[in-house]
Design a protein that fits this description.
alpha+beta, seven-stranded antiparallel sheet, Jelly Rolls, 3 domains, 276 residues, four-stranded antiparallel sheet
Length: 276
């Protein structure tokens, strides 16, 4: 079965940040040889069976839990390794897709990737296919664009170059520490204490935390304290700033105010006045 949809791309579609020029679901993959590559960004993931990719004179075996990112015009070849090889795929379009591949996915060439939850992406590709096939939605190109962006975010969250390095898996390892921080953010927390909760060394915990959240553990805690303080500022309009700062774990009111202004670009009092 070759369940696919290839839309006619309009000028309007090309001006959208993210769109698609083809999608295939539960697709019986044939032998593909492209000595000059393909002129678009692609994602192909294995649903069942096994296949082989030849990329840069290297052979890669692909099975469930594997996918392929392709950059435009990069030579490649792929085919089944005996029996039927079923895949899901999407060809991306849109004016910002190249930037997303390079800046968010942090890729600079075609590659094989691990997928921690391929079913999640498969379901979204099926939703894109069903929406694209519908003739009843007058704004379906905009709906398709939003689904494509959702797929890209899931690829960012669920794919990685090694089997355990996806953002989703990183957060899974950090979950005990993140839950503890949420309940105890007003206390003095140590790096050693948080790392122990995740079963990691302090050094590796810090590295993993930064990769997963783009913040150090203590930057994250400060941000959480400020977020909680914003809630208190609105819930208790007569609560003094000094008392409020202590409630969220700041012993020094001046430091609380500096931190608040650094993150929110205004003082706590100015923030409170916005909602009066």
């Amino acid at each position: 079965m070759k369940k696919m949809f290839l839309p006619i791309i309009t000028e309007f579609d090309n001006e959208l940040p993210y769109y698609f020029s083809g999608v295939g679901c539960d697709y019986s993959q044939e032998h593909i040889s492209r000595p000059n590559g393909y002129p678009a960004y692609q994602w192909i993931q294995c649903r069942s069976g096994r296949g082989e990719l030849i990329l840069n004179a290297t052979k890669y075996t692909l099975e469930v839990g594997h996918g392929m990112f392709f950059f435009p015009d990069e030579p490649h070849e792929y085919y089944s390794l005996g029996g039927e090889w079923i895949v899901d795929w999407i060809v991306f379009a849109g004016k910002d897709i190249a930037s997303f591949f390079r800046k968010q996915l942090r890729l600079d060439s075609s590659c094989v990737s691990f997928v921690s939850s391929p079913d999640i992406i498969s379901k979204k590709l099926n939703r894109l296919y069903d929406t694209a096939m519908s003739s009843e939605q007058p704004t379906k190109n905009l709906v398709c664009s939003s689904i494509v962006y959702d797929i890209l975010l899931e690829l960012l969250r669920l794919t990685s170059m090694t089997q355990s390095a996806s953002i989703a898996n990183r957060f899974k390892k950090l979950t005990p520490a993140l839950s503890y921080i949420e309940k105890n953010y007003t206390q003095q927390l140590s790096l050693a204490e948080l790392a122990k909760l995740s079963g990691l060394t302090p050094e590796y915990f810090s590295t993993l935390f930064k990769k997963a959240t783009s913040q150090t553990p203590f930057e994250y805690i400060s941000m959480l304290k400020i977020r909680k303080s914003k809630e208190l500022l609105l819930e208790h309009p007569n609560l003094q700033i000094k008392a409020l700062s202590r409630l969220v774990g700041f012993d020094d009111t001046s430091y609380f105010c500096r931190t608040f202004k650094k993150l929110e670009k205004m003082t706590p009092s100015e923030f409170r006045m916005l909602y009066r």
